[in-house]
Structure formats: structure tokens, C-alpha cells
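Issue 218. Parser rejects a valid record. Input:
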Amino acid sequence: MANGLRIRVAVHNLSDQQVTALRDAYAQMTAIRDNRGYGFLAGLHGTPGHWCWHHQHNARSALQQRLFLPWHRAYLYNFEMAARSRVANVTIPWWDWTLHSPRQTPIPKIFNDQVVSGRPNSLFRFHINLPSANPRINRNTERDPAPEAEMPTQGDVDEVMSNTDWADFEGALEDLHDRIHGWVSGDMGIIDTAAYDPIFWSHHAMIDRLWWLWQARNGNGNITPDLLDVVLAPFNFRVRDVLNANSLGYDYAAAQNVVTIGGP
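Output the parser choked on:
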């Protein structure tokens, strides 16, 4: 904790103890079959829930709204709270996919080891069992990453961050986000199954972190007032409720100073 905030740490900076805690939290969540469990929470994103917002669209709504970043911030918050209910001090680490070899393997080792200390690694994969899906899904998540040279670079991030208009920034960041989903491929490349892959949460923590860093420079930009009271279903948040990460009780290790953000 720093300044009373829980701190999300970069994957490449996690201690052995933090990695063990993360694996333990995910493993415990996997064993839960109710709405606190990994499968239930992952299913809110794509199949069977279809609540996620991507490119201003949602399968449950006829409206076109720019909710990708606020909705996923609320989503990560709820997942992190569920993880912390299993292992008290765990947080979702962010995967900095701009760090390439030799500093970091393309898929970080904590997500790539199939077995750890003789036990299945809960960060490697998840077994999806959705008998109500059409067609039914009953298998382990899979990845098929592209060559490392195709991963985004810090230059790509800098270009996205140079946008000062909210709409331009949000669109550019979502496009960059899409590249990683496509790069990991397999289930991460499919909206219906992406959130079942344990690496999904750390990828989205990276995206949320970039938004938070952008907010530190630009405030809330020119988010349109009509968005502020939109409810980020199925979560009990409006857009205005998630604009300040510190108000949600967390910060990122590379930006631990408390940022005061003005809003409409």
C-alpha cells in the first residue's frame, strides 16, 4: 500500500512472493462456481454475458457510446476485488508488452510455465466449460503468439499518448489494445473467450495504466457530459465513478503520486 492505495505492479517487477500470491488467488477463484469465481467473471466479457464495450458497441445495446476504457476499468476493479477476497493483498499486475527480449520474454514466464512446483500454473490457462454456448465450449484456453518483432513498441505507445483529444486517444489506445489481442491470438484473439485467458487481466491493466497516465497529463480531456451518468452494466458504477483510479483505491507502481483529476 502507498498513501493508503493498493499498488498494481509491473509483471516484470513482481517478487516471487507476489507471483505465488497471484497464482494462489487465480487458482482459488477457478475453483469457485458462483459469481465470485473466475469462470463467472470471465464470462461477463464475452460468452455468455456479452457485456463488454468495444469500438463504441455492445452486444446488449443498440446505442453507440465511447465506453471501452471506463467499462474495462470497472471490470478490472471487480475482478481485482474478487481476487483480493481470496488472497488479501493481491493486485492485478500490468504486462508491459513494450519490453522485449532479453529483458522480458514475449509471453512473460509467469504466464508461460505450464507447471510450477509440480502443480498446474493457474496463470497459464483456464478450462472453459460452457454447455450453454453454441457450439458448446469445453476445453483449455490456447495461445498462438506471433513473432516478437510484431509486438507494439514504446514508440507506438508514445504516439497514442500524444493525442490530447479524448475521442482520438480512446480510439488510438483501443486500436493498440487490439494489436495485443491479435498478437497473442488463440482465445485472446476472440472477444467471446478472451477474458478466460489469465493474461487478459494483465494486458488490460496495462491499457488502464496508459489511460491513467494520460489522465495525469490531460485530466479527463473532453469526455462528453452525456457519458458521465451512463451505468457500466453489469457493475454498480457510472462513468463518472471510475474516472479517478485513486478514488477506486489503487494506483500503478510507476505512478504512485496521487493525481487530482478535475471532471465535468
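Fixed in the parser; the record now loads. The mean pLDDT is 93.
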